[in-house]
Design brief:
Shape: elongated
Largest sheet: 5 strands, antiparallel
């Protein structure tokens, strides 16, 4: 058993040496090693610049396959006199993907406030080449806030952020 291990190790090393290029005469001439029995030299070439961000390992966000339209965005009092003012937002989503898409949506501001309808109401499934819409009503945000965003997050880890800076004020 002791004699088999060194022989197996030598075979593995010989295979690795041969896989790395062996000892061709062009390599020995270019590297300057001329001795018979000298170990072959491994030549490294510098990496070439990569064509796009996808090849460098950076995350590349695919273009959205959803067309999102803000149909209505207003701040309106709930009651005629003295009631709280709430954001009323209506939006439409058209799916241009070759398959059905599932997405969730929410409204958020830069202070960390998030409004998401309770339960399953915060999700939307849209079939290929079809559209669907939703309406949100909330008094969670400051009246007239200009830093609001509608966030649509799809199943492919794409996120569309739509600024709501043009909402009509009361």
């Amino acid at each position: 058993m002791r004699g088999i291990f060194p022989i197996a190790l030598m075979i593995v090393l010989a295979v690795l040496i041969m896989a790395c290029g062996g000892s061709s005469s062009a390599e020995t001439e270019s590297t300057g090693s001329a001795g018979a029995g000298s170990a072959p030299q491994l030549q490294l070439t510098p990496a070439t610049p990569r064509a796009d961000a996808g090849e460098t390992g950076e995350r590349v966000r695919p273009p959205s396959e959803l067309d999102i339209t803000i149909d209505n965005c207003t701040w309106e009092p709930v009651e005629a006199a003295g009631g709280p003012v709430e954001l009323n937002l209506t939006f439409s989503i058209t799916n241009n993907a070759p398959e059905s898409l599932f997405a969730t949506y929410r409204v958020q501001d830069s202070k960390g406030n998030i409004f998401r309808p309770k339960g399953f109401e915060s999700s939307i499934t849209i079939y290929t080449k079809e559209s669907d819409g939703r309406t949100l009503n909330t008094d969670k945000f400051e009246v007239g806030a200009t830093d609001l965003e509608l966030v649509i997050a799809g199943q492919r880890r794409t996120t569309d952020i739509i600024p709501l800076e043009n909402c009509t004020r009361p």
